[in-house]
């Protein structure tokens, strides 16, 4: 129970790594604001059964990450609940594989809007709440693509690299206010996003990795729990690669 | 978090090693607690841990400068017939000397304790881990290996060697189910930093985000994460634990 009495906002929780995060956080005793873009019966039912299974509160919140007005309204709702925000996990993200010379301006902007600008803005809002309580942990999902420079990932990688840079500055500025900020860089993880990558590229990456397999969303979620919890109290401004040792 | 696991930890007498030993016992691990020499206090502490947390804590004594003694220590661990899941290489030494002043003897001694003996010990213990096809090795490096540090030529280089070795071990042992990672602590409140001059302390902490020294328990928490199944997909990494110095 590493997150007992802690309240966490997690974005992009309807599937993939985000969904695994809600489960891992709930299993560790946290109250979770579970964000998704759209309200669906399926999502509501899923969150409800998790809440019952782990005996915690899971509060669904909905907004498009590129809709800043809707984001602001959701943050206002969180503020008015008077529940202190201890943890923010910026997980939601999109990818669109394209070689550098084939990347369109539209996809450049779209990926930066979702993967970086919305993360920047949401973190501005939530970190302000955290500084009032003089404590907090921000966990941002970057990517091995931000660090390694992979073919087809010039836009995605750049947007995720921007997240790293931003996170390190946040750590430097807000450290003395009791707020830690770190990134996780997943490698090959078994999610819908992986299906957008060429199979031969994925196969080679796995074959040349230390652990010879792709990662499970729950394995990324476990590191998020570690960084969100007090176990990592002396760790800030870091990027932890959870990638099975890909090269 | 570590229940059912058996760990070998070196440097258990004080500082980070002691905090790691205590935390592992609390989290339910059995521990082969290695240190240089036996003492009544140490033995009593192990017995208390064992009683309090209902785990096996077995002392193993050897001098890292004595290859035969290391071999003997490994034999004792083998003879206990407990499967080893985790190895934490914590024991180390620091001899402060500026680059132009450091002697070859100081350099060699630092490398003997901080690097050569650890490689030998890890060779032995990971061979035991191969039998069950799963294991986690945690090596203690230092931010001085990554950043360099005035007066720490020998120390920083020996800790740098640990990093390269960690990545190579991770590549060779990964397919066999053994993860190998390193941690890079910053300024941690132990006997090793107790005599750090105020000016050096200030120089380091002024670069940090949270502006304080770290506690041994905070380092132990990171080690526990790397020892546990929470980090099952993490290998070949160097994780800084330094309050945001780097």
Secondary structure blueprint with pairings:
The complex is a heterodimer of chains A (247) and B (246).
Chain A lengths: L6 E4 L5 H12 L3 E6 L4 H14 L3 E5 L5 H13 L6 E4 L14 H29 L2 E6 L2 H5 L5 H21 L4 E8 L12 H9 L9 H12 L10 E4 L5
Parallel strand pairs in A: 1-2, 1-4, 2-3, 4-5, 5-6, 6-7
Chain B lengths: L5 E4 L5 H12 L3 E6 L4 H14 L3 E5 L5 H13 L6 E4 L14 H27 L4 E6 L2 H5 L5 H21 L4 E8 L5 H4 L3 H8 L10 H12 L10 E4 L5
Parallel strand pairs in B: 1-2, 1-4, 2-3, 4-5, 5-6, 6-7
Description:
The complex is a heterodimer of chains A (247) and B (246). By secondary structure, chain A is α/β, with parallel strands linked by helices. Chain A is 47% helix and 15% strand. In chain B, strand 4, helix 4 and strand 5 form a beta-alpha-beta unit. Chain B has a single domain (6-241), classed as Rossmann fold (3-Layer(aba) Sandwich). With 246 residues, chain B is an alpha/beta fold. A 7-stranded parallel beta sheet of chain B has the order 3-2-1-4-5-6-7, with helices on both faces. Chain B has 9 helices and 7 strands. At the A-B interface, helix 6, helix 8 and strand 7 of A face helix 6, helix 9 and strand 7 of B.
Concise summary:
The complex is a heterodimer of chains A (247) and B (246). Chain A has 247 residues and is an alpha/beta fold.
Rg of chain A computed from alpha carbons, rounded to a whole number of angstroms: 17 Å
* Strands of chain B, total number: 7
Q: Averaged pLDDT of chain A, please?
A: 97
* CATH fold naming of chain B: Rossmann fold
* CA(first)-CA(last) distance of chain B: 29 Å
Low-confidence stretches of chain B: none
Strand-residue proportion of chain B: 15-25%
What is the CATH class designation of chain B?
A: Alpha Beta
> End-to-end span of chain A in angstroms?
34 Å
Q: Summarize the largest interface: chains and residue counts.
A: A-B, 33 and 35 residues
């Amino acid at each position: 129970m590493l997150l007992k009495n802690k309240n966490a906002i997690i974005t992009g929780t309807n599937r993939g790594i985000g969904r695994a995060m809600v489960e891992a956080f709930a299993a560790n005793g946290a109250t979770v604001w579970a964000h998704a873009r759209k309200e669906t019966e399926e999502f509501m039912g899923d969150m409800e059964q998790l809440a019952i299974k782990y005996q915690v509160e899971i509060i669904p919140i909905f907004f498009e990450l590129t809709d800043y007005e809707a984001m602001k309204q959701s943050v206002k709702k969180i503020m008015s609940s008077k529940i202190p925000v201890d943890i923010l996990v910026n997980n939601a993200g999109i990818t669109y594989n394209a070689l550098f010379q084939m990347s369109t301006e539209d996809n450049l902007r779209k990926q930066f809007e979702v993967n970086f600008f919305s993360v920047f803005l949401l973190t501005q809002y939530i970190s302000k709440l955290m500084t009032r309580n003089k404590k907090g942990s921000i966990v941002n999902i970057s990517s091995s693509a931000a660090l390694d420079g992979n073919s087809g990932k010039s836009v995605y990688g750049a947007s995720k690299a921007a997240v790293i840079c931003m996170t390190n500055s946040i750590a430097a500025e807000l450290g003395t206010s009791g707020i830690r900020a770190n990134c996780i860089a997943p490698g090959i993880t078994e999610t819908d996003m992986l299906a957008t990558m060429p199979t031969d590229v994925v196969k080679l990456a796995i074959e040349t990795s230390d652990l010879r397999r792709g990662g499970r969303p729950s394995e990324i979620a476990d590191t998020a729990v570690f960084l969100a919890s007090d176990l990592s109290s002396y760790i800030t401004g870091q990027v932890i690669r959870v990638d099975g040792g890909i090269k | 978090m570590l229940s059912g696991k058996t760990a070998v930890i070196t440097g258990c007498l004080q500082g980070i090693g002691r905090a790691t030993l205590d935390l592992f016992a609390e989290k339910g691990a059995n521990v082969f607690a290695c240190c240089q020499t036996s003492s009544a206090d140490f033995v009593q502490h192990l017995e208390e841990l064992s009683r309090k947390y209902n785990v096996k804590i077995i002392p193993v004594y050897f001098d890292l400068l004595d290859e035969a003694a290391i071999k003997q220590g490994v034999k004792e661990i083998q003879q206990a017939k407990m499967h080893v899941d985790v190895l934490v290489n914590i024991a180390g030494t620091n001899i402060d000397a500026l680059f132009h002043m450091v002697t070859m003897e100081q350099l060699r001694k630092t490398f003997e304790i901080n690097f050569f003996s650890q490689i030998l010990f890890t060779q032995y213990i990971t061979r035991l881990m191969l039998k069950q096809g799963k294991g986690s090795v945690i090596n203690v490096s230092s931010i001085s290996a990554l950043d360099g540090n005035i007066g720490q030529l020998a120390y920083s280089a020996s800790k740098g060697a640990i990093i390269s070795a960690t990545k190579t071990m991770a590549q060779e042992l990964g397919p066999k189910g053994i993860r190998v990672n390193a941690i890079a602590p910053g300024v941690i409140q132990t006997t090793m930093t107790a005599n750090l001059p105020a000016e050096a302390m200030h120089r380091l902490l002024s670069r940090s985000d949270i502006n304080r020294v770290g506690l041994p328990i905070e380092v132990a928490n990171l080690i526990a994460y790397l020892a546990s199944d929470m980090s099952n997909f993490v290998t070949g990494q160097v994780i800084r634990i330094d309050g945001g110095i780097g």
